[in-house]
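Task: sequence design from structure.
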C-alpha cells in the first residue's frame, strides 16, 4: 500500500513537472554586458556596392542604451547599383525559432536602413522588416517604393530582385527618432508577422511558405546600437502529449 502511495506521488510530481515544462516558454535575454559575441554570426551580404566590411562590436553605449551595447559602425551598403537596401547581418546562432516574440532596444546615429531578420537560413533565404528615414532608393527600380518607409519583405535570390515585397507602410510612415532610444517588437506566429515600434508604428504581413530559422539584425548604411535583445519562443507544446509521455514513463518505471 505504501509502495502504491509512493508511486501515485511520483505520478503526480512527474505530471505536474512535465505539464509546467510543456507550457513554459523558453526565453533568451542578452544585455551584452559580458562583452562576448560568441553566440552571434556576422554575415556581410553578397555583391555589395560598398563591400565594407561591417564593424560589429560591443562597446560602451554612447547613444543612451544600458551599459554595453552591440554596435555596427561602418557605412556598408546596397547592391552594386544601390537600388536595394542591403549591407550586413548579425544572427543569434544558438538556436532556430519558429513562433516567437522578439524585443530589442535600438539607438540610431544615422538616417539609413535598419531592421530585423527571421527564418534566416542564408543570404538568399529569410524575411526582413526594414525601415528607412532617408529618401532612398531614388528612383526605386526594384519594387517601386523609395524611402522613407518601413517594409516587410522575403528574400528570394542573391541577385536582382533580391527581395519580394510583402507589405509596406509609405504614406503613413513616421521617421524614427535619430540619436534617441527606440524599442522594437517582432511577433511571428505560423507565418504571420507583426512588427511594432515604441511610437506605435506597426506593419504586418503573412507568408504561407514560412519555416523556422535564425533571427538577427540587418543594417544598410547605418551606424546603430542594440541592447537588451530578448526572444521568447511561443511555439506550442500540446499538454496532452506531455501528459501521455509522462504516464508512459511512470508505467514503465519498475
Ligand atoms: Ca547592455
Ligand atoms: Ca543617409
Ligand atoms: Ca549612412
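Answer:
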Amino acid at each position: 500500500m505504501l509502495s502504491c502511495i509512493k508511486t501515485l506521488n511520483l505520478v503526480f510530481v512527474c505530471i505536474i513537472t512535465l505539464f509546467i515544462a510543456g507550457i513554459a516558454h523558453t526565453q533568451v535575454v542578452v544585455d551584452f554586458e559580458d562583452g562576448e559575441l560568441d553566440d552571434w554570426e556576422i554575415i556581410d551580404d553578397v555583391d555589395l556596392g560598398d563591400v565594407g566590411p561591417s564593424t560589429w562590436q560591443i562597446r560602451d553605449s554612447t547613444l543612451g542604451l544600458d551599459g554595453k551595447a552591440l554596435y555596427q559602425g561602418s557605412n556598408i551598403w546596397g547592391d552594386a547599383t544601390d537600388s536595394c537596401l542591403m549591407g550586413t547581418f548579425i544572427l543569434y546562432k544558438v538556436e532556430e525559432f519558429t513562433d516567437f516574440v522578439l524585443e530589442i532596444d535600438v539607438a540610431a546615429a544615422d538616417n539609413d536602413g535598419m531592421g530585423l531578420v527571421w527564418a534566416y537560413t542564408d543570404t538568399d533565404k529569410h524575411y526582413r522588416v526594414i525601415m528607412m528615414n532617408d529618401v532612398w532608393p531614388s528612383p526605386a527600380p526594384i519594387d517601386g517604393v523609395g524611402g522613407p518607409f518601413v517594409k516587410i519583405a522575403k528574400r528570394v535570390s542573391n541577385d536582382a530582385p533580391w527581395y519580394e515585397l510583402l507589405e509596406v507602410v509609405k504614406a503613413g510612415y513616421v521617421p524614427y527618432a535619430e540619436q534617441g532610444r527606440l524599442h522594437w517588437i517582432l511577433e511571428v506566429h505560423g507565418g504571420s508577422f507583426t512588427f511594432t515600434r515604441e511610437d506605435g508604428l506597426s506593419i504586418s504581413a503573412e507568408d504561407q511558405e514560412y519555416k523556422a530559422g535564425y533571427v538577427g539584425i540587418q543594417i544598410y548604411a547605418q551606424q546603430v546600437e542594440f541592447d537588451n535583445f530578448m526572444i521568447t519562443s511561443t511555439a506550442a507544446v500540446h499538454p496532452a502529449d506531455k501528459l501521455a509521455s509522462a504516464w508512459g514513463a511512470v508505467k514503465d518505471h519498475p
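Helices lie at 2-23, 239-251.
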